[in-house]
Structure formats: C-alpha cells, structure tokens
Amino acid sequence: MSASSPIISINMISKTFPGGVQALDKVSLEVSEGEFFALLGPSGCGKTTLLRILAGFETPSEGEIFIDGADMGHVPPNHRPVNMVFQSYAVFPHMTVAENVAYGLKVTRTERQQIPGMVEEALELVRLEGLGNRMPDRLSGGQRQRVALARALVKKPRVLLLDEPLSALDAKLRETMQLELVRLQNTVGITFVIVTHDQNEALSVADRIAVIDQGRLLQVAGPAELYEYPKSRFVADFIGKMNLFEGTNVGCENGVLSVLVNGLGRLEIPVTEATHADVGLAVRPEKMLLLDEHPGDAYLAFPATVDKLSYQGSETRVFLANEKDVSFEVSVRNASRDSAADPFKGRMWVAWKHADTLILSD
Amino acid sequence: MESWRKNPRLFWLFAVPPSFWLLLFFLVPLALVWVLSFGEKVGLVDVVITWQPDNYMRALDPLYLQIFAKSFWFAGLTTAVCLVIGFAVAIAITFAPARRRPLLLMLVMLPFWTNLLIRTYALIAVFRSRGFVNAGLENLWQWANGLLALIGLGELQLLGTEFEPLQLLYNNFAVVAGLVYVHLPFMVLPLYAALDRMDRSYIEASLDLGAGQIRTFGSVVIPLAMPGIVSGVIITFVPALGSFLTPDLLGGTDSQMIANVIERQFKSANDWPFGAALSFILMYITFFAIALRALWVGKRRRGLAA
Predict the structure, then answer these.
(1) Where do the structural domains in chain A lie, given as residue ranges?
(2) At residue A3, does pLDDT exceed 50?
C-alpha cells in the first residue's frame, strides 16, 4: 500500500451537543496510512470530541467519516478497525495485566492457543515482559499506560487513537514516553492519532499536526512548517512564543509591503504575495538578536531598553520595551558557560532578518 | 488515632453519650433477652432462668425449621428479584441525563417517606379481589369480550361467562411482592452508588476492544459493581429475613415467616423464653451472613495485593 493513501477521511464533520454547544464546525481532514498524526488545541476546542467520533463513542451531527475506505456512519465502536488508549488508561482493575491485554482477543474469538503468545509479544513490545500476573493497582502510572498501549496494539488496529495519553505523567516520564511512542509507532507501523493540548508534545512526536480552536480546523502541517510558517495569529501564538506587532497596510508595490506599526513606525518588508489587508508582523524570540549597534540593511532593528531577564538554563529570556511601550521578548541561547553572564542591560538594538518576519493576515 | 490522645477531653465528650445510649438501650436489653432465652416459663407471667438450652432444642423441631427455611426462601427470592429490578433501575438512573438523576433518585426514595403500615395497606388495595389490578384486568376482559361480540363470536363465550378475579392477596405471591416493594430502594441505592462511581471509560474501553454490550455488562460492569451488589444483597436480605408486618398483612395461613412466630411467642403464646431463643437464632444467622461478606472483602483485598 502506498504511504499516501488516506486511512482516515473526515469530511465536513460538525458536532453540536444537546444544549447547543458546538464542539466541531465543518472539519475536514485526511490522515495517511502509517502517519503519526496529532490533534492539537486548547482544552475544550473539540479535539477530544473528534477522536471520540473516530472511535464511535459520539455520533457527528453532520458529515461523514471513512476509515480504511469504509463509511463509519452506523458502525458501533466494537466493530471499528480502531483501538483507543484512554486518558485515564481504563485498565480494568479486576483483571491482571495479561488478562487486560488478552481481553480484546478473547471477546473477538481469537484462537485460544494463540492468545498467550500474542499477549507475551504485546507485553514485550511495551517493555512489560514478566509483569503479566500483576494486578493494575500494583503498577505505576507509566506502567499502566503501557498496559493500555499493549491492550490496544495487540488487536492490530488499522488506527490507534490516543487521548491525551501522557497528561497524567510527570514531566521527565512524559519525555521518555514521547520517544517511546515514536519508537513504538515505527516498530508496528500502525497509524497513530494523538490528541494533546501540549504543543511541545505534538511537535516532538507527530509527522503532521492539525491545530483546532473552537471547533474549527485552523491549519494542518508538519511540525517545522507549523512552527515557522503559521497561517494565523492563533496558531502563531499557540505554538511556541511569538512577538506580534499589529500594523496598518499602507500599500504593497513591487514585492514590498509597507506597514505602519504603532510605536515602530513605517516598515518595508519584501513579500512574495501581495496583500491589501491589515496585517500582523510576527517574529519568534529566538530569531531576534540583541546588539549594541544597528546591524545593517539585511535586518530590521529597533532600540529598546531591557526590562527584565528570565534565566531558564539553556536560554535566557530577555524582555525589552521601547519608549512607545512596544514590548519585545528575545530568547538568547546560553551556548557557553560564559554566555549566561552576558550583560543584558540598558539600551540595546533588537534586530532580526527581514526573512524571519512572518506576515499574518488571519 | 493520634488525635484523640491529644484531645482526650473532647474525645470523651463525644464518645460517652452515644456509648451510654448504646449500652442502655441496645446492649442491656439484648443481654436480658439472651438470658431469657435460657429460661423456662412457669405459670402465667413468671420465668425461671434454668441455663438449659431447651428452647434452642425446641427451635430445631421440623415445624420451626420449616418456617426458617420458608423465611430464607422468601428473603432469598425477594433479594434476587430486587437485584434484577434494582440493577435495571440503577443503570437507568446512572445513564439518565445529569439533571434528571436527582428526580429519579427521589422517586426511588419517595416510599420511605410513607409509613410502612400505610404502604402495606395500599398494596392490599392494589391486590385484593376488587382491587386496582383486578379492576384493570376486568376492564380488559370486558373490552376483549366486546371485541369478540363485534366480530360475531360473542355467543361462544370464549373468555368464560363472567370475569374471574385473580387471587393476588393472602398467599406467598403477595408476601414476596410486598417484600420486593418494600426493599427495592435498599437494593437500588448501593447499586446506583457503585455504578455512578464507576469510570465510564471502562465501559468504553471494553466496547473499543471489540466486546458487545452483553459481554461488557458481564465482564466489566458486574465485576466492577460487585461491592455494590454485595452491599445491596446484604441490606436487602437481612431485613427481608426478619420481616413480620408484610407476611402478617399480605400472607395467607401458610406464608408465615419466622418473625411472625417470634411475635406470637411474645404476645398471644406468652412464651418469652422460646421467643427469645428464636430471636437469637435469627440474629446468629444474620451475623453469619455479614461475616461471610467481611471474609469475601478480606479475600478480595488480599487477592488484589498478591
């Protein structure tokens, strides 16, 4: 099968809950076979509802869903070729680890003799070999998570759905499990769809990310594209840190956009596409430099006064403001031991390359 | 444990009045009855304490053993019927929309606010020969007869010449129906508490893994609701076993339960020592049932810990 054939097609899905809350508004997207796909958005944005619609626990008010080419309209959860890892793990407390993993095989009439071998294999896959006889209340959170994974993967689903699977783990374990999930996905080759509100998690695990806000799909892109070329103010602000300057469009000629930004004056920015709407100019903090002198024509540069510093180990965040109260946040990497001691104080030039300026009209 | 040592005065302030109450109005009368059970009736009102187990031996007479057996049968049947109906009701409440749930729970508890005697008399009005059930059936009978007449079969008297009311009262059916009616809330509430506590994602996980509704109910819902089931069974079975008002008012001559016999010993038969012995036998049985539950819970704990 080709890597680009869609395993999931979501076509104009809307969901309105009784009581009138609209969780999803005409969402359409496709997930390719073997992809690690993330649904990212703030809590309450509708991403979990979309996942539950894929699993069959919610019915869409409008639109249709195809999984592996089949219309899922009237297919109940127990007949869908997908399995889910729940946010609470939902590992059955009255069964041992092995019984939990075997459950999905037993209820679907798998050959009795094959079950123990398949369970063993699944436990090895998630590195829980030898814990088959444990009861779940004798496991750590991370181990329970692995049981939930093994239980879903042993069914060999076409798609594995993960609902905020790492949110209950502490920060260190979460990072380990992120790598683990990527390793697992590479090993089994199953399409993973993960729901998360954590942008770092989405960026680090997913091949592609769909950003959802208030039930609407804002952008679908790979991690780097999403980070470097967000298409809207919401995506720019939600993913990572962003300096945003709102401006008035005063004309676009010969590939140069003139924008009047309050407190920064009139800026001329080379653009590839002409735009006539008012725009926001956005620059990532790590793309900005702090200099003693104006660096020249390749850069946009503004004098500002250092307001405060926030030391974060690998980097230092420097907050500045100019005399018109325009604030800047610059992130400076502490590349050597000495650099942390660099004096950021007084008036400095905040500068960035023209090419690092994002123009946002949405 | 630490805190009561720190504030001994406060502890005694709160501990003494209820302990005193328990001692005076529960343990002392209980001890009196226990002593009485080893007595012998002499004359009309006098009892001599002989410390002989004669009364207990007398309770082993087949006549009384049969009534014990019948009481167990009624209480067991009541518990089983309550469990089946109660589970359905508890599930219906658990899955009802959140804003309807308080109303539904209220409906379950509403009968508690009415005196048991009045509720039982109300059941008599429902079940008697010219009661609501039979009146409803008679209407149906007349309606069906009318329908038969319409299609020209009226002459054949297919449904009999006149309506014969069902005998619903003063028999074993009436007793069990009455016991189920009275004890149903005791079953519904612990079941509801267990189901309501249960994380819905267990059910969803079972469906997600390919199990159907029935399999999910049997393999996930029932085992997870087991503490509620056990509590419900005990707090239904124990009072049902000791019921005396319901069999007294709704039962026939052969539907006596052990509590009716005990009552008669203390009143019309005027044999307090024998009544006391029967009471204690009933109590030992109840203790045994509760001890079994404690054992079960303990075993489960150890099982989980192993």
Answers:
(1) 6-237, 241-360
(2) no
Q: What is the mean pLDDT of chain B?
A: 89
Token digits for A123? 């436990």
Give the distance from CA B47 to its chain's centroid. 34
Give the tens place of pLDDT for each residue, B239-268. Answer: 999 999 999 999 988 889 999 999 999 998
- Substitution target in A51, A52, A75, A86 with the highest count of B β-carbons within 10 Å is A86
Tell me the CATH number for domain B62-128+168-305.
1.10.3720.10
CATH fold for the domain made of A241-360: OB fold (Dihydrolipoamide Acetyltransferase, E2P) (2.40.50)
pLDDT beyond 90 at B164:
no
- Regarding the domain delimited by A6-237, which CATH topology (the fold level of the hierarchy) does it fall under? Rossmann fold (3.40.50)
Q: Could you report the predicted ipTM of this complex, rounded to two decimals?
A: 0.86
CA distances from A8 to A12, A191, B132, B157 (A): 13, 9, 59, 67
Among all residues of chain A, which has the CA nearest to that of B205?
Answer: A90
Of A56, A88, A151, the CB nearest to B209: A151
Mean pLDDT on B94-118:
91
Please provide the average confidence, as pLDDT, over all residues in chain A.
Answer: 91
Distances (CA, A) of B67 to B60, B61, B74, B259, B277: 11, 10, 10, 10, 15
With a CB cutoff of 8 Å and minimum separation 6, the contacts of B38 are B49, B50, B51, B52, B53, B55, B273
